[in-house]
Amino acid sequence: MEQKLIKYGSHRITNDEDGYMYNFNISKGADFNSHIHKCHEFIHVIKGQFLYTVEGTEYTLSDGDLIVTRPEELHSFSFPKECEYQREFLHIYPNFLKRFPEATEILNSRSLGKLNLIPYEKVKKYNIDKIFDEIKKYCANPSSETDLMVLLCAVQIILKLNSIWVNDTPKYKNILRDKNTNFIYNYIDEHYMEDINAASIADAMFMSQSYASRFFKEQTGMTIKSYLNMRRITAAKNLIMEGQKITNIFARCGFKDYSTFYRAFVKYVGITPEDFKNSHNNQKNNNIKS
User: Fold this and answer.
1) pTM for the full model?
2) How many CB atoms lie within 10 A of CB 16?
3) Which domains does the chain have, with CATH numbers?
4) Is the pLDDT reported for residue 18 higher than 50?
């Protein structure tokens, strides 16, 4: 079975901020444990049935559905039954959308784990599948215009999502993200490598720790500490994939000692840092061979 039919984009693994990646895959369904990205992810399911969990909300996906996550959303997926899994996904990193700040605002408007699934009927109704066809065409035969055309297609998809959420989703305003929650996300993204915690983040907001922690948990379903650790673990995963020594990276990610980093990594990734490194290297070697 051919694993990777099309893989194209301007993103580089050492860059958390810029570029994009489009990938069309056919494979056997395989479970993937909880993780977060530094990108906005759009997965269009061509064929297959599986469970997709985002921040504790479970979605059942099947042919034609679209699932959307943004950088800080913790997600995983599993296949209850063996099946052929055909999908195309688009990863959009923050600076790729800098020409269109309104598009980023739209993607960040949801609360965590809400409105991630766009069912097949709405994907067809709003012609999102046809926009993916355009992206696939540009990436199958890349040229000097491909990056710009993918950007314009991505913005079209985002505007379609906005129309679906605002005009075709009941009670949409009830799940908009709170501005204080946005502050916490942005503060952690900028300072996660420093010696910060829930108390110092609350101080930066001129709030009590109990109040800041309570409304963040109400808005997101997770604690400030949990998100801070997930952001640090995401940075650690990227450093491991860059080839950095595992024992040298914990301080760069904001952990005070290796044992704390190790426990957090196993908790949020599901495997040890060494196992993650070996898995990544094996996958990279297989891609080179193919």
Assistant:
1) 0.67
2) 18
3) 4-173 (2.60.120.280), 178-289 (1.10.10.60)
4) yes
